[in-house]
Every structure is written in C-alpha cells, then in structure tokens.
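Q: Structure tokens for this one, please.
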Amino acid sequence: MDSYNKKFNQARQRIKVIQVDMSQDLFNQGLFDQEKTILMETQKWSLVEKKVLRQKSRACWIDSDNSN
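A: Here is the predicted structure, written as tokens:
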C-alpha cells in the first residue's frame, strides 16, 4: 500500500471516530475544530491520490507506445 493511501485511510478513520464523538457531545467546539482539520487533511490526500493515479495512467499510456 502506498504511503499516501495509508495516510488517506488513517484520516478517514479519524473522521469516523471524531464524528461518533460529536454525536455524543453535540456542543463540543473542539470536536468540530478537529473534524474540520481532518477533513482538510483528507481532501489533501485525496488530491494526492488523484495526481498519482493520473501519473500512473500516463506512464502506462507511454509504455504502451501509444502516440497521437
């Protein structure tokens, strides 16, 4: 598993935990702040994943000797 993928999955797991905690303590501003931070981190790793997949796709395309 790639390191970006591992970090992305870890962030997603942390969001789940934070959201469960939020459902039990609706007025805890600290949990809302943590969720916001982790959501931004998740978005960052999602963009990294998209870029990596795009680069892998291009590399496969070049390796297959396709040219336009």
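A few notes: Helices lie at 3-24, 29-63. The chain is about 85% helix and 0% strand.
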